[in-house]
């Protein structure tokens, strides 16, 4: 059975909300496997038609199952893939285990022979780093983006108070809202709320929406309300992820716990 057929057999239902395709699965394992299969198939197809692929990854526990399966996917020439990540805390030491760059090192960047990996490194001048990273992203189109949705509906670190659908910037510095900071504790990335940095560098919503194909992986019951608002609410920055309904090629992967209709 082909990977595509395996993915369809795992799904409990596929449906559309605007342009957004939703694939729902009985459990998190099936969801991660199907998402990884779809991403791997897209990579193979794109690498047959162009020499290089540019790809952005989210760093979050919600992505771990998919990334593990993607690392095991055969017949992908990762040497022709350039990788980016979509956000990073400001103020953490270079070796802090919660840094998103280090998390991605552990889960994918150091597992595969990427041609290039561009990491966000805020250092002592976050503004300069935001400009540097924006210039790298703007060098050529972004082919694929692997992302998630936060409990407050954020995509990357575009929390409702700072999210702009028409943001003029590609990368910017943001203040994290309390809901987002608490999620980092609930995800066991930090021991206490006060340990979570107040500021971060993030790719903006227009930057994310510029990706040619988006794969959004969102497991877990604590994400169900955000998924419901994404699918059924108004398209508004009160739920930044709602804008995904306007993307021409975005697939949202859910398990039975995150799916409000399961």
TrEMBL record:
Location of the Glucosamine/galactosamine-6-phosphate isomerase domain: 28-246
E.C. number: 3.5.99.6
Keyword Hydrolase applies: yes
Example GO molecular function: glucosamine-6-phosphate deaminase activity
Keywords of the record: Hydrolase
Tagged with keyword Protein biosynthesis: no
Enzyme class, UniProt record, top EC level: hydrolase
InterPro entries: Glc/Gal-6P_isomerase, Glucosamine6P_isomerase, NagB/RpiA_transferase-like
Name recorded for this polypeptide: Glucosamine-6-phosphate deaminase
Organism: Paenochrobactrum gallinarii
């Amino acid at each position: 059975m082909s990977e595509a057929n395996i993915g369809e057999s795992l799904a409990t239902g596929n449906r559309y909300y605007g342009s957004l395709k939703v694939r729902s699965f009985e459990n998190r394992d099936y969801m991660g496997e199907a998402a990884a299969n779809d991403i791997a198939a897209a990579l193979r197809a794109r690498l047959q038609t162009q020499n290089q692929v540019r790809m952005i990854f989210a760093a979050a526990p919600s992505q771990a199952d998919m990334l593990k399966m993607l690392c095991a996917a055969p017949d992908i020439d990762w040497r022709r893939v350039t990788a980016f990540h979509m956000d990073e805390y400001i103020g953490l030491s270079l070796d802090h285990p919660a840094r998103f760059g280090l998390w991605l090192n552990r889960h994918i960047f150091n597992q595969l022979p990427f041609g290039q990996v561009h990491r966000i490194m805020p250092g002592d001048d976050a503004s300069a780093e935001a400009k540097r990273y924006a210039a790298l992203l703007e060098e050529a189109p972004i082919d694929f983006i692997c992302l998630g949705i936060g409990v407050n509906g954020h995509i990357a670190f575009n929390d409702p108070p700072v999210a702009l659908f028409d943001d003029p910037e590609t990368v910017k510095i943001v203040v994290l809202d309390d809901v987002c900071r608490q999620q980092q504790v609930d995800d066991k990335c930090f021991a206490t709320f006060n340990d979570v940095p107040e500021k971060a560098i993030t790719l903006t919503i227009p930057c994310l929406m510029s990706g040619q194909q988006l794969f959004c992986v969102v497991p877990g019951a604590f994400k169900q309300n955000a998924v419901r608002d994404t699918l059924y609410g108004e398209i508004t920055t009160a739920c930044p992820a709602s804008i995904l309904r306007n993307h021409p090629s975005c697939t949202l992967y859910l398990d039975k716990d995150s799916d409000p209709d399961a």
